[in-house]
Amino acid sequence: MAKPTIGLFHKHPHASAECCIGMIRALSKSFRVELLGPKECTYRRMKSMQIVAFPGGVGEADDWSQIFHNAVADVRLFVQKGGVYLGVCMGAYWAGPKYFDLLSGVTVDQYIGKGEIRRSYRTVAKVLWNGQPETMFFWDGPTFTGSDFETVATYANGLPMAIRQGRVGLIGCHPESEESWYAPKYLQKHWHGGRHHALLRDFALSLHG
User: Fold this and answer.
1) pTM for this entry
2) What is the DSSP letter of 18?
3) According to the model, what pLDDT value does residue 140 have?
4) By the 8 A CB rule, do 36 and 8 touch?
5) Of 124, 105, 5, 104, which is closest to residue 53 (Cα–Cα)?
6) Are 114 and 80 in contact (CB under 8 A)?
7) Under 8 Å CB-to-CB from 175, ≥6 apart: which residues?
8) pLDDT tens across 40-74, in order?
9) In 43-200, at which residue ranges do the beta strands (DSSP E only) sit?
10) Bridge partners of 63?
11) Pairing label, strands 132-138, 123-129
12) Region of poorest pLDDT, from 56-65, 107-116, 159-168, 199-208
């Protein structure tokens, strides 16, 4: 059976090269991954894909508008026609009302300041993923407010960390993180050994299914 196809957006640093590499390695066991540049985010290009994925990176509002001003309607149409949107960290922010506006009654908010993490830096967050405790790589990811969604994972204080609403799946942390991300001494003991790649892969498969 042919693997389903994921179109992975890439444009460093807005879609970080290391995040893209991590997502390719995490997802390629179950998906055929194709790269999408800014000019390729068209419905004509994406309609043969089952999922479009937007990774973490640097994405201020002005930068986002310049990159996607011609693509917003196409991404929305892709989801409306049955495609899946997968957003990780910055890609999750981009699903919100100020960006692609793919959610109904859900706000995408910065997690920093709402829990144990008070500033933006490479760190880890304690989460519950499907009820199981994990310590997951975090770098200024979002949380979500609203009621009409399924919560897959929560932060330590109970706020949503990973959610599904229809064909939109969003994750605040970085399950695609690789061992090199944990090089600082304060992070080394938290390397997940690839376990979080399986969580991301299962999350994507559940969206596709």
Assistant:
1) 0.96
2) H
3) 94
4) yes
5) 5
6) no
7) 26, 88, 136, 137, 196, 197, 199, 200, 203
8) 999 999 999 999 999 998 866 667 888 888 899 99
9) 51-54, 84-88, 107-110, 123-129, 132-138, 142-145, 150-155, 160-165, 168-171
10) none
11) antiparallel
12) 56-65
Q: How far apart are CA 199 and CA 104, in angstroms?
A: 25
Rg (CA), the chain: 16
User: Which residues contact residue 13 at a Cβ distance below 8 angstroms, ignoring those fewer than 6 apart?
Assistant: 57, 58
Whether 107 and 78 have beta carbons less than 8 Å apart is answered as no
Distance (Å) of CA 116 to CA 119, 120, 134, 156, 203: 10, 12, 15, 8, 25
Tell me whether strands 123-129 and 150-155 are parallel, antiparallel or unpaired.
antiparallel
Alpha helices in the chain (DSSP H): 17-27, 43-46, 61-68, 72-80, 90-93, 185-188, 195-208
Bridge partners of 143, per DSSP, are: 109
* Contact (Cβ atoms closer than 8 angstroms) between residue 7 and residue 53: yes
Q: Which of 129, 127, 95, 128 is nearest to 198 (CA)?
A: 129
pLDDT per position as a tens digit, 79-99: 999 999 999 999 999 999 989
